[in-house]
Amino acid sequence: xxxxxxxxxxxxxxxxxxxxxxxxxxxxxxxxxxxxxxxxxxxxxxxxxxxxxxxxxxxxxxxxxxxxxxxxxxxxxxxxxxxxxxxxxxxxxxxxxxxxxxxxxxxxxxxxxxxxxxxxxxxxxxxxxxxxxxxxxxxxxxxxxxxxxxxxxxxxxxxxxxxxxxxxxxxxxxxxxxxxxxxxxxxxxxxxxxxxxxxxxxxxxxxxxxxxxxxxxxxxxxxxx
Amino acid sequence: xxxxxxxxxxxxxxxxxxxxxxxxxxxxxxxxxxxxxxxxxxxxxxxxxxxxxxxxxxxxxxxxxxxxxxxxxxxxxxxxxxxxxxxxxxxxxxxxxxxxxxxxxxxxxxx
Lengths: 225, 111
Description:
B: mainly alpha
C-alpha cells in the first residue's frame, strides 16, 4: 500500500485510510461487510451440525432426552451467563474504541479474554465429569438406562463435536483478542481506525450466539421428564 | 459497485456510537431470557418445551445481532448478507427435515 499522506493535506487523507477507499466510512463498511460474509460461512458450518442434531433427535428422542439429563444444567447455565457477560464487555470495548478511551478499551479486552477463559475452564470441568462417568462414546461407554446405551452415544458424539467446535472458536477468539490488546496498547487503534475491534467483536458475538442455541438444545431438552 | 447514498441507509450509520445504556439493557434482557429458558425447561409442556426453548434462543440471538453486532445501525447491504445467512440456513434445515420427517416407512429405533 502506497503512502500518499505527504501528497495531500491531512484533512483530505486521514492516516488510517487505505488508498483504495474513498473515505473512512467506506473503508469501515467494507471491513464490516467482509466479516459478515465470513460469518455466513460460519453459520452454515455450524448449521450442518445443527441439522445433524435435528435429524438424530427426531429419530431417537428418548435417548437424546436421557443424554441431556446427564449434563449439568448449573454449570451450563453459569457458562451461558459468563459468555453473555463477555459479549457485554466486548460491546463496551467497541464503545471505548469509538470514543477513544484507550485505558477502558485495554481493560475491557482483558475482561473479555478472562471471561472466555472462565468459560473454557468450566467446560473442561464438565468434560472431566463426562470422562469420569464413562460418557465418552466408544467401547468404554456406560449408561445407566440400558435401553439407551446405543443411541445415547449419538447424543454424546454430537455433544462433544458441537461443544468442542464451539470451544475451538472460543480459543481462536481469545487469540484474536490478544492481537487487539496489542493494537489497543500501542495506539494502532484510534477513533478513526477501530474496525479491527469492531469485527473481532462481530466474531466474538457470533460465538456467543452459537452457545445461545447449544445450551437449550443440549442441556435443557427433556429436562422436565 | 455504486456508493450508498446517505438516503439509502436506515438511520444515521456514519460512525454510529451506540449509547452504553443500550448495551446494558440488552445484557439484562439476555440474562432474563437465560433464566426464563432454564425455568421453562423444568415444566412439562410436551412439544411446547422445544418451541419455547427455540423461541427464546431466536429472540436472544436477534437481540445480539441487532444491537451488540450493530446490524440495527448498519447498511442495507449488511442486512442483505445477514438475512441471506438465515435464509440459506433455513434451506438447509427445511429441505433436510422435509425429507427425514416424511420418510414414514423408515423404521428408526423407538428409543
